[in-house]
Amino acid sequence: MFRAFQKPRIGIVLNGGGARGPFQIGVYIALKQHGYIDKIKAMTASSVGAFSATLFLLEDEKKMIDLWKLIDNKTVKANKDFSFIKKVSSALTKKAGYYSRDKLIDLMTDKLDLEKIYQTKLPIYFSLAKRVIEDEKNTSYQAEYIKVNNLKEDDILTLLMATSAIPMVFDPVPYKGNTYVDPMMADNEPIKPLLNYDLDYVFILPLNNSHLTKTYSPSLPFDIVDFTCPQMMELKLKNMIDFDPTNQDSYISLGYFTADTLLSLLESKGLLANRLNLKKRKELNIYSLSNLHISDIRFDIMNSEDILKLAQKQKRK
């Protein structure tokens, strides 16, 4: 069969962005509606994106949303059991975190099916920042990408904590002789591991403004579909650490409508249906709402149940 008539092979990059994580669930709902889930051949993730990657394996949007609804500020940012002054002093002098994540670990242990990562044949990589040099004045970090397939559940849970260990906010995480923190210190948009796979498109699901200054090598062997939502990027940065469950439906809505709009436009142009003929491709193509000149579109906010009903209705058409 000719390459041009084969289904495209897609890689997924799930960026970090804290409490905006439900946006990626909204994108997943649209990807499923448009029939792309079985075309995903590899996934990379950083910080909260690693949590999204774990949820994607449930293949059940309702369960994904229900799990997110269990996450709030008290779960993610539980106070440590010592005084305010001591917490601040510890964070500044020892690079320890201000908050405890014991409650979050308990929630993940109880509710997440980490066995699915062990069992899946879909390659999944977590991006982390490894501490490589530290003295009294300086600390440097190096990007590291760990393939989590076939790892034990305890290892996966440790890496989920490591990739989301925001410096000064949460404690660094030791793992196999190294110390890791959130990849905001190294690579929050881990495309590199996907270079090892035969892909036509890489779908990037960004959550914060750091993505807007990202540049890509023209020699990338795949095209990029960028699910940036301009409407979300206008929000204040502080909401990335505000895990208020009442905000989650708005992120899911923005993710769904961004992805549904972008995918529909690309499909109308005859893209995404077949494998790319890379020999004929003259340059790297990046597709986004901004590049298609519709970045000023404003999406309605709906509750998640209505989003699921809408996606199911659109899928039947």
Automatic annotation (TrEMBL):
Where do we find the motif GXGXXG here?
16-21
Active site positions: S47, D182
Listed name of the protein: Patatin-like phospholipase family protein
Q: Which UniProt keywords apply?
A: Hydrolase, Lipid degradation, Lipid metabolism
Pinpoint the PNPLA domain residues: 12-195
Q: Which Gene3D superfamilies match?
A: Cytosolic phospholipase A2 catalytic domain
Per its UniProt record, what InterPro entries does this chain match?
A: Acyl_Trfase/lysoPLipase, NTE, PNPLA_dom
Q: What Pfam families does the entry give?
A: Patatin (PF01734)
Protein's GO biological process: lipid catabolic process
Q: Name one GO molecular function term.
A: hydrolase activity
